[in-house]
Write a structure and sequence with these properties.
four-stranded antiparallel sheet, mainly beta, 407 residues
Length: 407
């Protein structure tokens, strides 16, 4: 379900089942880069004229190699890279690179200023070749990263970036970059800032987009690891409260008799709304009634204010439960209010949990369970929320449209 990966010189777990939201360079376990041709041969690869080279890169030590081979090259599956620190007694296997043509490797797991030695072998299904020549290089003197980076949204058009720098090292400048997801293909430079400047006001933000910021310290020799933060830019004006109205309800007409038999007339629905955090769940609506004015698959409503958003964190989520109500006895129900949070130095929601909320005397009983829907603070101001069952949908808006019933 997960594969090992690296981000900013740190080991991370990557979801192997769902496509990533950000670009990923696959260096192993990828059938697209393994082209062994006809797997054959009855001996290990025999290599001559190895030409392994090691050079210092901005983030580590870069290895490149070429060779000649008297044996059939199509039998080669990949390469084993062996490494040792110059103070260590011997080499150990450091990395395996798959693909006959992948003859470049950037070792970013090195420690600043240390010397490392390497050699490479080729391998096939039989075994390993003779080793290459041994090369050595010194890792760069990578500076410390910024001590903090935070992005704060003040309005839908103004975002403030703040960062800190370590006091015990020289800093030439701090570089700030940003990526607007589904707008930019890569990070773009925002600016370079001298050590006395620790903030930037970004008024070039796009509503409804996820914006990832990263910053690094630059010196004459190298740059530090990146530190990240991100925001989901809402359509709402985060500086003022906004109301949330149910404008319209609809469902799949094929299910009308499952929802409400014709003898009982028009459908009636009850809505419960809760919100959650890691510490508590809060009931917002216990059972707002929505009476359809006719036996139809959709209906407008007015004056149905279900929540007033306050200037708030962008991670706030409303969990909504709907049942079709037929004057059934009152019972208590539990709803799991979901919440989303991010960890420090993150480009995604790393914490996604729920907390149970009990609603007393919610009219549920044997009535039809319409299901659960979710509304997030950063969703569009007019949003169609889908529920679990019967093709049920609610159109929610920041403005009361003053319409009612089925036109």
């Amino acid at each position: 379900e997960y594969v090992k990966g690296y981000q900013n010189q740190q080991e991370v777990s990557i979801d192997a089942m769902n496509s990533p939201d950000e670009p990923v360079v696959v260096i192993g376990l990828n059938e697209r880069i393994i082209d062994p041709g006809e797997i054959g041969g009855d001996e290990v690869p025999v290599i001559s004229d190895w030409n392994l080279q090691a050079t210092q890169s901005q983030s580590g030590i870069k290895l490149q190699w070429t060779y000649t081979y008297p044996t059939d090259p199509q039998s080669i599956i990949g390469y084993n890279i062996y490494r040792k620190e110059n103070t260590s007694p011997g080499f150990t296997l450091h990395q395996t690179v798959l693909g006959i043509n992948n003859m470049v490797y950037d070792d970013i797991s090195v420690e600043p200023n240390k010397y490392y030695s390497y050699y490479v072998t080729a391998f096939n299904i039989i075994g390993e070749s003779n080793p290459s020549n041994i090369v050595s290089a010194q890792a760069p003197n990578r500076p410390q990263e910024v001590t903090s980076l935070s992005a704060t949204l003040h309005s839908s058009s103004l975002l403030e970036l703040n960062w800190g720098i370590p006091l015990d090292q020289s800093v030439d400048y701090v570089r700030l970059e940003k990526l607007v997801v589904n707008v930019n293909n890569d990070y773009v430079q925002v600016g370079d800032f001298t050590p006395d400047i620790l903030y930037f006001m970004d008024n070039d933000v796009v509503k409804g987009k996820k914006v990832i910021y990263r910053s690094a310290i630059y010196t004459a020799n190298a740059h530090s690891n990146y530190k990240h933060d991100f925001v989901m830019v809402p359509y709402r004006d985060v500086s003022i409260p906004t109301k949330t109205y149910v404008e319209k309800i609809s469902f799949d007409w094929d299910f009308i008799n499952d929802i409400e038999g014709w003898l009982l007339g028009a459908p009636e629905f009850r809505l419960a709304v809760v919100s959650g955090s890691p510490n508590q769940g809060v009931t917002i609506q216990e059972g707002m009634l929505f009476d359809f004015c006719s036996r139809h698959s959709w209906n407008y409503f007015n004056g149905r204010n279900i929540y007033n958003w306050q200037p708030s964190n962008w991670d706030e989520v409303l969990t909504m439960k709907v049942v079709e109500w037929d004057n059934s006895p009152n019972i208590d129900i539990d709803i799991n209010a979901i919440y989303k949070k991010k960890n420090i130095d993150s480009t995604g929601f790393d914490v996604d949990g729920s907390i149970p909320v009990r609603i007393v005397d919610f009219l549920n009983s044997h009535d039809e369970d319409i299901g659960i829907g979710y509304l997030r603070y950063y969703d569009p101001e007019t949003m169609e929320v889908e529920f679990s069952n019967y093709g049920f949908k609610m159109v929610i808006s920041t403005v009361d449209n003053n319409q009612s019933c089925y036109p």
